[in-house]
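Support request from a user on the community tier.

User writes: "When I paste my structure tokens into the form, the page sometimes reloads and wipes my input. The last time it worked, I copied everything first. Here is what I submitted, just in case something in the input itself triggers the reload:"
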């Protein structure tokens, strides 16, 4: 006999490259303004005292290759390509020197953003949740197990084959080690947590019929096709 009033939904998960197992998704921490050029194109400055974050729920996860309907409530949907860090060990108040020991693997992701809703929220100094955390707003590639730091690889995105975003990972204001160490001062990081590490410049609007493809070189790519609104 079930202890639940109704069957709970299955956990969100991601495929793992060259393995039969899947990676269960817990929380998704997203880093804001982690590329100075992107902050500038949005009319903002980077706060170099500390990173800042917003959170997407596991219900926001979509799989690479999905066809997703254009989301409701927006007329200005933007793409943001990001490197994804998958946490595989618990950690609290972790030193920067030990931070990479928490990393299970890496992937690529799209932080889809209802930009018009975000702009209204910014103007009224309100939270960004409605613009960032919605079904299908975290489109994620398969993960690959870590074999060491990624180094200075490039991250890029095309829309319908046209280059929109490209930058080296060294352009990130806050490194993976710094992000993990900082987050662990405020959260007990757990296996299954993901960190979307911010997007480079070149974000722009997309619409029904557009095909988005991108990722970090050497990692599984992420791909999304936008369908018509529901």
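"...and here is what came back when it finally went through:"
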């Amino acid at each position: 006999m079930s202890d639940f009033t109704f069957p709970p939904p299955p956990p969100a998960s991601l495929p793992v490259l060259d393995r039969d197992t899947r990676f269960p998704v817990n929380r998704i921490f997203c880093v804001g303004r982690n590329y100075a050029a992107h902050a500038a194109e949005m009319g903002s400055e980077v706060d170099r005292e500390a990173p800042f974050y917003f959170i997407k729920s596991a219900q926001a996860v979509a799989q690479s290759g999905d066809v997703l309907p254009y989301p409701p409530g927006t007329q200005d949907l933007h793409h943001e390509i990001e490197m994804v860090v998958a946490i595989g060990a618990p950690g609290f108040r972790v030193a920067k020197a030990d931070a990479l020991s928490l990393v299970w693997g890496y992937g690529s992701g799209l932080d889809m953003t209802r930009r018009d809703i975000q702009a209204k929220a910014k103007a009224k100094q309100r939270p960004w949740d409605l613009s960032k955390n919605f079904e299908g707003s975290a489109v994620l590639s398969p993960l690959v197990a870590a074999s060491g730091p990624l180094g200075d690889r490039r991250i890029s995105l095309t829309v319908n084959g046209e280059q929109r975003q490209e930058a080296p990972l060294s352009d990130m204001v806050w490194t993976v080690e710094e992000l993990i160490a900082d987050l662990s001062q405020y959260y007990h990081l757990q296996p299954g947590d993901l960190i979307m590490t911010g997007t480079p410049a070149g974000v722009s609007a997309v619409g029904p019929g557009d095909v988005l493809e991108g990722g970090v070189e050497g990692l599984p790519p992420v791909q999304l096709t936008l369908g018509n609104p529901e």
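Agent notes: The reload is a front-end session timeout and is unrelated to the input. The radius of gyration is 17 Å. The chain is about 10% helix and 35% strand. Escalated to web team.
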